[in-house]
Amino acid sequence: MQPRHLRVFVDLDRVRTNALSISRLVNGDIIAVVKTDAYGLGARRVAKTIGDLVAGFCVFSLDEAAALWKIAQKPILVLGPTADVEPDELTALHARPAVWTLSEADRLKSARPILCMDTGMRRFACPAENVEAVLKAGDIDEAFTHATKLEHAKMLASALGGRGLRLHAAASALLNEPDCRLDAVRPGMALYRGAVRVATRLVEVRNGGCTTGYTGFIAERFGIILCGYSQGLRRGPCLVGGVRRSILEVGMQSAFVEIGPGDNLGDEVVLLGDSLRELDVAEAWGASEQQVLLVMANMGPRTNEAS
Ligand SMILES: *Cc1c(COP(=O)(O)O)cnc(C)c1O
Q1: Which of 41, 58, 119 to mutate to test the pocket of ligand 1 (most atoms within 8 A of CB)?
Q2: pLDDT at 2 over 60
Q3: CB neighbours of 296 closer than 8 A, spacing ≥ 6?
């Protein structure tokens, strides 16, 4: 069960502001990546919030496309494998499949497939030597690559540029590279950064000074929050009374938090948001910002109201 005292606040205004900044930065289209329920923020509410600013949406599997067209009337690109899907199911949802094999390009031709070219990811993508055959088999007018470096975008552009295909390569990490922007960009994280705030409260407060917890750590003063590794929490930074503190030890459903002399029972502990960015937590976890956001956004019931 998800704890009630833990609040996940989704700031949709921030998502819209992020989308507006991206559209000012790039000249081409934004294809908003809303896979995995928009990284935990809620794909439908995100689609409602930025539908007018984007040219389309990306999902991973067709089931994620279901409600999107009704909300924003923008085309949907299905990034993952669609071997179990019929072309009619795609067109019914205004979804177009990414393809990387000749047989899938041919089979899904009527759903207007989009080529995914391999430029280094080596997953769900077409090797350069097969690109021409796949383009032809699917009568394809759009191609992309899952680029993680500038050179990947350049490989796509040099292989397929100048022949009327719509091309895209950049996810969030490459938005600042003008050469990666091509005809469209596919940001996920850059839309959601700063939009989720996760907060809970101190349910116990103790003076320390002696060995504590499972690991026998010693802290001058600590508090307990009702959030643990069953919710995905790990050791890392948090904010107590606006001050940067540490999560000292994480149990299954609770965690020990370092606090100061002025912090008391019931005080708010922020796990993400305010001055604590996804990147700060990601560095402590040794994880990506996307991983942090996904875990945090799913820690408790989501609300659009600031508490
Ligand atoms: C997830 C994904 C993106 C978005 O990635 P971010 O780094 O979150 O912007 C873009 N393109 C593809 C193919 C993806 O799978």
Answers
A1: 58
A2: no
A3: 8, 40, 196, 198, 232, 271, 272, 278, 281
Q: What is the mean pLDDT of the chain?
A: 96
Q: Which of 49, 48, 42 minimizes the C-alpha distance to 297? A: 42
Alpha-carbon distance of 116 to 97, in angstroms, equals 10
DSSP secondary-structure letter at 261? T
Q: What is the pLDDT of residue 1?
A: 46
Would the CB of 77 count as within 6 Å of ligand 1? no
Atom of ligand 1 nearest to the CA of 191: 9
Kindly give the number of the ligand 1 atom that is closest to the alpha carbon of 192.
8
The answer on 21 and 165 residing in a single domain is yes
Last residue within a domain, chosen from 157, 176, 192:
192
For 212, the token pair is 């504590």
Q: Is 153 in the pocket of ligand 1 (CB under 6 A)?
A: no
Is the distance from the beta carbon of residue 193 to the nearest atom of ligand 1 less than 6 Å?
no
How many domains are there within the chain?
A: 2
Is residue 112 classed as helix, strand or coil in its secondary structure? coil
Quote the CA–CA distance of 51 and 71 in Å, as a whole number: 8
The CA-based angle 100-101-107, given to 5 degrees, is: 110
Are 143 and 264 within one domain?
no
The amino acid present at 173, given as its one-letter code, is A
Among protein residues, the one with the nearest Cα to ligand 1's atom 14 is: 146
